[in-house]
Design a protein that fits this description.
Blueprint: H1 2-11, E1 16-22, E2 24-30, E3 36-40, E4 55-59, E5 68-73, E6 76-81, E7 88-97, E8 103-110, E9 121-128, E10 154-161, E11 170-171, E12 183-188, E13 197-202, H2 203-210, E14 220-228, E15 237-245
Parallel strand pairs: 2-7, 10-12
Antiparallel strand pairs: 1-2, 3-15, 4-7, 5-6, 6-15, 7-14, 8-13, 8-15, 9-10, 9-14, 11-12
Length: 246
């Protein structure tokens, strides 16, 4: 636990935010010279009611303030996300070459398991540039967001499975599917809830397994965030220390 608290505290200092100009000023989070990008600490003063300019929060319906709260859980500052009747997503715009910073790390604690199938709260990562057709797409699960998300051509969801045995599995939607993105089960199981878990995923390796024909060398990570899917029993999740590294 002491190592985890040290890791989370250190990563909050690694991110550098710079403006990028494209007609109007849109802020992105850039990788620091040491090869780290702290996406979410959450740092002191972080508030979902007054998000920094490089963050986006959108909802498909209503959103109660208690569904997104910065709290301290077991001595660790975290963002507590609770799903409800309507979907919502919170992401940070990033600009990072995937091969330069392929490792995504974070810690999470599931307060209670999902009643069925995958947990309704999951990590989402958006990419752009590597797809063979090189054209932006509107991902069907996020069409209700309009043009709010940064331009992207690939999305991966990182999920908590119903069973611990699902860990490490990749599921890709069929060609006829209109409501899903590829997903990777990072961990799962009722027996693993109620405890902090430190995770690290190699995005480059995962991306290649899902889209082997894409050019990873030019793919960028353009957003990282958390989605809460509607239509499930509320199941709070604590997330802390989201970091990209090389």
């Amino acid at each position: 636990m002491k190592f985890l608290q040290f890791f989370l505290g250190a990563t909050t200092l690694a991110g550098v935010i710079l403006p990028i100009l494209s007609g109007c000023t849109v802020k992105h989070a850039y990788v620091a010279p040491e090869g780290l990008l702290s996406v979410l600490g959450p740092f002191p003063g972080f508030s979902v009611a007054d998000l920094p300019d490089d963050w986006i929060i959108k909802k498909n319906g209503s959103l109660d303030v208690v569904q997104l709260r910065v709290v301290t859980k077991d001595g660790i500052p975290s963002l507590r996300i609770t799903n409800a009747e309507d979907s919502f997503i919170i992401v940070r715009r990033t600009e990072a070459m995937m091969l330069a910073t392929p490792y995504l790390s974070w810690s999470w604690l599931i307060e209670q398991p999902s009643t069925s199938s995958y947990h309704p709260v999951r990590m989402v990562i958006g990419f752009y540039g590597g797809a063979s057709k090189r054209r932006p797409v509107s991902s069907p699960p996020f069409r209700w967001l309009g043009s709010s998300l940064p331009t992207h051509d690939r999305i991966i969801s990182l999920t908590w499975g119903e069973s611990a045995l699902q860990r490490g599995t990749i599921e890709t939607p069929s060609k006829d599917s209109t409501n899903a993105t590829p997903s990777y089960t990072v961990r799962g199981g009722r027996e693993n809830t109620g405890a902090w878990w430190l995770e690290t995923v190699d995005l480059s390796d995962l991306y290649h397994k899902i889209w082997p024909q894409d050019n990873r060398a030019i793919a960028q990570v353009v957003f990282i965030g958390i989605e809460a899917v509607a239509g499930h029993v509320p199941a709070p999740v604590h997330v802390s220390g989201i970091t990209l590294s090389r």
